[in-house]
């Protein structure tokens, strides 16, 4: 089964605007993690939210988790051109297990 | 901040050849993973490794793949007889707790 599906697939905004990306998953999880990937590069960990948490902040990032709907959102406020990248959610079912990644959202922030 | 490193950054090989991808994890991390990302597709889990043995592997991780920590620090992924469809970016990751830290990846091209 697929896990961690993001929408939208692509998002294009202007600098200063907020960007919201959503992620849905199908099975129970221990935590959900968001990663950023610049074109052809490695994955950079952004934020982790545990299944017993509903919201978390880190700088300009805000993540929410709704376990009843099996969904999460990543909000980037006051976006910058440097935020241009692909963003992936990844779920972990527990026990330091594998991460299951979604297909990602390609974010383009225009100056 | 400690980082995960991977070598080589790029590798081109002929079909049927063996390749070894190397990773130097963050020194006190205990859990090790390999993932791959075929161009334009999701990041896929290959294998997890803890306490010098495989803890989980995916369907992709068949008999042509193997992992080891030859000297207690480096973590390697060997592909015994490469196929065209093995062309992908291969990421090493490691963790101490839930957060997985990824290396920059090795781009493997099988011709």
Estimate the global geometry of chain A from the Cα principal axes.
globular
Biggest pleated sheet of chain A? 6 strands, mixed
Encode the helix/strand succession of chain B as letters: EEEEEEEEEEE
Low-pLDDT segments, ≥5 res of chain B:
none
| Rg value of chain B | 13 Å
The CATH superfamily label of chain B reads Immunoglobulins
How far the N terminus sits from the C terminus of chain B, by CA atoms, comes to 37 Å
CATH class of chain B equals Mainly Beta
Mean pLDDT of chain B: 92
Task: Write the CATH architecture name of chain A.
Answer: Sandwich
Biggest sheet record of chain B: 7 strands, mixed
CATH superfamily placement of chain A: Immunoglobulins
| CATH structural fold name of chain A | Immunoglobulin-like
Biggest interface pair, counts: A-B, 24 and 27 residues
Task: Assess the beta-strand content of chain A as a share of residues.
Answer: over 45%
**What oligomeric arrangement do these chains adopt?**
heterodimer
The helix fraction of chain B, in percent, is under 10%
Structural class of chain B: mainly beta
Mean pLDDT of chain A: 91
